[in-house]
Structure formats: structure tokens, C-alpha cells
Amino acid sequence: MEHEYSIPNLVLDETDKHILSILHEEGRISYTDLGKRVNLSRVAVQQRIQHLLDAGVIEKFTAVINPAKIGRHVSVFFNVEVEPQYLEETALKLEQEPAVTSLYHMTGPSKLHMHGIFANDQEMEEFLTKRLYTQKGVVSVDCQMLIKRYKSRTGMKL
């Protein structure tokens, strides 16, 4: 399981915030073009971004893929209640599932909140019956299918 590490009391100045804001909207922008927009040299921008990466402020650079464009049309949120002694084991297994896009331990009696994306209803049903219900310690599963996405987390705006 991934652990988060941070530098305590990291203070971002206005230039750091401006860099993060631009990267949030244009993650593929070159250091040179970014430098022009924040009035710094390419080298200075590169050093600041490396510092933000090292500090864990920027976790990673990635592409945001539209699931429907690659044949993944069924988006489902799951609330999974797990017996406390099996919570960690279940979470570690579920995080390895390719269909699972996010997985969180929530407040409440041993709750996992999970999102998955599937090609169709049959694939989702197979996930439920063969991959989720069979996990040791799973007590109950509540599913909600997404109808329309208005906004999703692709990073945090400052």
C-alpha cells in the first residue's frame, strides 16, 4: 500500500502556486513555456518542479483517459463493509484489481469506498460475484451506478 510522506510546514510561494495552477491545466507544457509564463528561467522552473515532486506536493504526472472512448461504459461506486480483522488484507487485494480506479478507507464500521470502471454490466457482475463477494471478511456491498459525471478529481486547483 502506498504511504504518503510530506515535508512538515512546506510553504508555497505565489510562484509555486502559479506553476501548480498552470500544470493543473496544461500538464504537458514545456519548462521553457512555463518559465515564460511565470517569469523564470527554464532551469529555475525545473528546479521548483523537482522540489515540488520531492516534497510530495506533485504526486505524479499522468494522462486523464476518457473511459467511454476506450470501451469502458459502466462506472460504479461501491461501499464495502468488511470485518475489521480483514480490512487491510481486503484493501490490498482490491487495489490490485484493474477495474478499481480508487479505493478509500472511510469512517464507519470498517468501510471501504471504491470506484470501478467496467466495459458492461456483465463485467461488473462478474467482478462482484468472483472478485468482491469472495473476499474474506466482506459483510455487505452497496453499489451505485454513475449516470452522469459533472466533475471528477484530476488534481487540486489552488
From TrEMBL:
InterPro entries: ArsR-like_HTH, AsnC-type_HTH_dom, Dimeric_a/b-barrel, Tscrpt_reg_AsnC-like, Tscrpt_reg_AsnC/Lrp_C, Tscrpt_reg_HTH_AsnC-type_CS, WH-like_DNA-bd_sf, WH_DNA-bd_sf. One of its GO terms (cellular component) is cytosol. Gene3D superfamilies: 3.30.70.920, Winged helix-like DNA-binding domain superfamily/Winged helix DNA-binding domain. Residues 12-73 form the HTH asnC-type domain. This is Transcriptional regulator (Lrp/AsnC family). Keywords: DNA-binding, Transcription, Transcription regulation. SUPFAM superfamilies: Dimeric alpha+beta barrel (SSF54909), Winged helix' DNA-binding domain (SSF46785). GO terms for molecular function: sequence-specific DNA binding. The lineage of its organism: Bacteria, Bacillati, Bacillota, Bacilli, Bacillales. GO terms for biological process: response to amino acid. It holds the Pfam family HTH_AsnC-type.
